[in-house]
Amino acid sequence: MLNKSGLSMESKISRRIIGFLCLIFLLALVVIFFRVKAQSGLRTYTENHAVLTVASLITKPGPSTEEIILPANVQAWHEATIFARTNGYIKKWYVDIGSRVKQGDLLAEIEAPEVNAQFHQTEADLNTAIANQELAFITAKRWVNLLKTDSVSKQETDEKLSAAKATAAMVIAARANRDRLRELVNYERVIAPFDGTISLRSIDIGSLINAGSGTNNFPLFRIVKSNPLRVYVQIPQTYMNRIKSDMEVTLHFTEHPDKVFHAKLFETANAIDAITLTLLAQFWADNPKEELLPGGYTEMHFKMPLSSKLIRLPVNSLLFRSKGLQVATIDNNHKVVLKSITISRDFGNEVEINTGLQVGERVILNPTDSIFNGQEVRLAPENKNSVQSEPTKI
Question: Residue 357 to residues 24, 314, 332, 345: CA-CA distances in angstroms?
């Protein structure tokens, strides 16, 4: 019984030792497993962070059109400052500022007694010249008939014929002088040269006026025709080749914030101003309600066509190197390729690339200064938010 009990005790101790050793072995395996896993994770982390992760975008064609905003000046279709053509006093005026007139309407009357007297004198001079002409022709005709019978000399006959021609010339001169003064008398009636609106009246009854538009003379009226309107704009030389004969634009006025007015190209100066380097263009705009006033300022909005080869990039994609302006692109093997570019225009937050890039290339955003050709990179998740180009305002 003792032997059996002793053997039983030893057997139990052996089993416990074996169980304990197995437990230690299992714990060792667990520790080794987690250490190997940690080392593998560290290796993967190190490898992942050894490759530069970059944000990028794929180049796309720029917009087919762009909106250009230029300051423009609105002018009347016709505008005339009316001066007196004869000296005198204002007898009466019939229109005031804001009056709408038709072509040929009477605006004012001038009283010019000196001109009227001169006109009557020229009429009398013309009648005298006509009477002298008739007498000279009758006399010349008689002397020609007497010459046929040798009753008078040929010399005296020639003198009579010359006198008749001289009186005829005097009649022509007297009639021309009469017609000139008749026109001056007609100018006593000031009439409207075209349909329009009176924008200025600087006379009153009894005002002394002088003919002409000299420094000592003042205008009687100013008349404007504001339907349609002329709109003048200076277009920078950069956009000159985009101006088409059928171009239409929109006009925006601060006094009409909720309205947009349309205008069409009428003509250009066909020459660049050497000082401003701009092209003067004239547009016309309908103004049936005459709600737009000439002489004002407006913003002219152009829809300019753009080349499909032009690419726009954000400025944070540019690299300033000794070789010039560059961008970092990524090839199919996730390798960096540096490319030199040229910029056609700078919009502030974006630039327009003229040469050096093609549509569909992947460009790195915010590239580091140490980036180099052939460097392997990893792509970060793409940002879906794209930069919206704003209208170019000049």
Answer: 65, 14, 16, 15
What are 304's two structure tokens?
Answer: 């300019």
pLDDT in tens, 134-147: 888 988 888 888 88
On whether the CB atoms of residues 110 and 90 are closer than 8 A, the answer is yes
CB of 205 closer than 8 Å to CB of 92: yes
- At position 26, the amino acid (one-letter code) is L
Q: Please, what are the domains in the chain?
A: 54-66+308-393 (2.40.420.20), 113-187 (1.10.287.470), 226-305 (2.40.30.170)
Tell me what percent of the residues of the chain surpass a pLDDT of 70. 90
The label of the residue with tokens 């093609």 reads 358
Q: Render 91-125 in DSSP notation, one character per residue.
A: EEE---TT-EE-TT-EEEEEE-HHHHHHHHHHHHH
* Strand-pair category, 377-379 with 52-58: parallel
Would you say 248 and 282 are in contact if contact means Cβ atoms under 8 Å apart? no
